[in-house]
Amino acid sequence: MSGLPGTVIDMGALTGRVALVAGATRGAGRGIAVELGALGATVYCTGRTTRERRSEYDRAETIEDTAELVTAAGGTGIAVPTDHLDPERVAALVARIDAEAGRLDVLVNDVWGGELLVRFDTPVWEHPLEDGLRMLRLGVDTHLVTAHHAFPLLLRTGGGLVVEVTDGTPAYNAAHYRLSAFYDLAKLAPIRLACSWAHEIGPHGATAVCVTPGWLRSEMMLDHYGVTEETWRDACATEPHFAISETPRFVGRGIAALAADPDRARWQGAGTSSGELARVYDLVDLDGSRPDAWRYVEEVQDAGRPADTTGYR
């Protein structure tokens, strides 16, 4: 039975496997957690917003909601409130996973939380320094803290997978200034971390990869344009290039396929995208399309051409 549309990956390919999706409250993290669950994984879903307490985002999405979606998809979702800037909380999280599951097969480092701090095209001397440094702490330090505590458990059984999540492919980010110096560093760091992790955990049989979604129809992005997932195309009237956007489940399907791939070591240290993973693993988004956002951004959007997704989804 096919577990992911357009592919022959078995529905239970990750049964018995344990994943930690750090930063699973909403957006890409939620989509990844749900698709890992769809292949049978037990998924620990972490974040700072719960049904009792919200982070500074002050949004309704919670890690409990994500965990329930994981279970509904066919896996086992477990919500654990965690601030990944707090080493003691992260150590306690990993100790809990060890006590309850005795293993960790997949770590997805999706912690971010810096959207409210971004200042577009603002030079460093004009950018609020506190906000910029906070952005780096949220987007870089959290990944290092999580790796420090989680890697020993991940390496215990061998063959584990670490996925760093960022915004932008290695080629695109190397050639383009991304919004501000702080954002630029925050989104380049996961690409480089995947290379570092490959060097450090590769000899122990584990694989590290960096993955970027395309133009993500996250809950926040839909709210920004005043649309829902059902009416998202209405946003194209004000932002025509939004036509290339994708659901968070699309990158989730790519990462789930990667986790189920016995030959995933071929991706060691690489940076890739939801679109490339979809081509390699023969996947589609929820609407049956296969958006290739980063190729579109370079060849259509950045090139100043009229919005036209023909050949790109």
Supply Rg: 18 Å
Regarding CATH, which class? Alpha Beta
- Strand content bin: 5-15%
CATH homologous superfamily placement: NAD(P)-binding Rossmann-like Domain
Structural category = alpha/beta
Mean pLDDT: 94
Order of helices and strands: EHEHEHEHEHHEHHEHH
Any chance you could write out the topology, listing elements then pairs?
Blueprint: E1 18-22, H1 27-38, E2 42-47, H2 63-73, E3 76-81, H3 87-101, E4 106-109, H4 129-156, E5 161-165, H5 170-175, H6 181-201, E6 207-212, H7 219-225, H8 248-260, E7 271-273, H9 274-281, H10 293-301
Parallel strand pairs: 1-2, 1-4, 2-3, 4-5, 5-6, 6-7
Helix pairs in contact: 1-2, 1-8, 3-4, 4-6, 8-9
How would you describe this structure to a colleague?
The protein has a single domain, classed as NAD(P)-binding Rossmann-like Domain (Rossmann fold, 3-Layer(aba) Sandwich). Helix content is 42%, strand content 11%. The protein is built from ten helices and seven strands. The model has no long low-confidence stretch (mean pLDDT 94).
Keywords:
313 residues, alpha/beta, Rossmann fold, 7 strands
Short description:
The chain has 313 residues and is an alpha/beta fold.
